[in-house]
Amino acid sequence: MDISVVIPLFNEDESLPELSEWIVRVMTANNFSYEVIMVDDGSTDNSWQVLQNISSKNNSFKGIKFQRNYGKSAALNEGFKAAKGNVVITMDADMQDSPDEIPSLYKMILEENFDIVSGWKKVRYDNTLTKNIPSKIFNGAARWSSGIKLHDFNCGLKAYKNRVVKNIEVYGEMHRYIPVIAKWSGFKKIGEKVVEHRPRKFGVTKFGWERFINGFLDLATINFVSKFGKRPMHFFGLYGTLCFMIGFFMSIYLIIAKLMDKGFALTNRPSFYIALIVMVIGMQLFLTGFIAELISRNSASRNEYLIAEKLGL
To answer: Which of 128, 189, 205, 285 has the highest Cβ tally under 10 A?
Structure first.
């Protein structure tokens, strides 16, 4: 199979018929063998019923329905598990991503041998103050911390080699950082393509201003997990040992000073309490690293979701 299209959705019953027809036109015109896996992330409208109707007419359209809303990362992760195409395309269901971009993304993966090609919505129709400016700040921070030269990490329109999506795990809200996760998994050939950003035709955005705060928190998390996820003691143990040694040598200095000068008011000096606090912090960091090591070696699965129904899978 040439292409798997993975589409996470939440309350998009108005856009699904038009989107599915558009995808079929593109696939037919380019003679692609394909499947479209739509993951309903606990919609409360008629999205699942619409998807059932689409699937009954075209068995290339398949579906996964979550019992409740788990988030975009969970939807993508389940879609990746089910995808069989040589190239996996992700796009949003709100029709702000154009299916006409699929052939060129597919070509870049196949002919230019990219592991990932990320879309760049160079011209956007979002609100400048609430979305565009925060997005530029967020993407600048992500470029700086990851070393990946992408302009739009959060663009939903991306293409992957199949082996990339089968070897990465997306959880929490880490869908924004799939290129970072892939890079740390060894897939380093990451490209970018300018894609069309279309005005929203149906519904309203599902993301508020809080996603930018969450985005920066997730960026810190993914950087830490990428570097120290398998060896947390290297982080906590290092800084714990440094803190403990600083406090220890301060304490030795103060004790010697007291022995040499009986009038030395040890407990009246701020340095005495600083030394004790730093030693305690050092011990806490060291023990945190030790516990994190135990947890990392015995961690349970982070991707178990209650699926209500499936279509064609």
So the answer is: 285
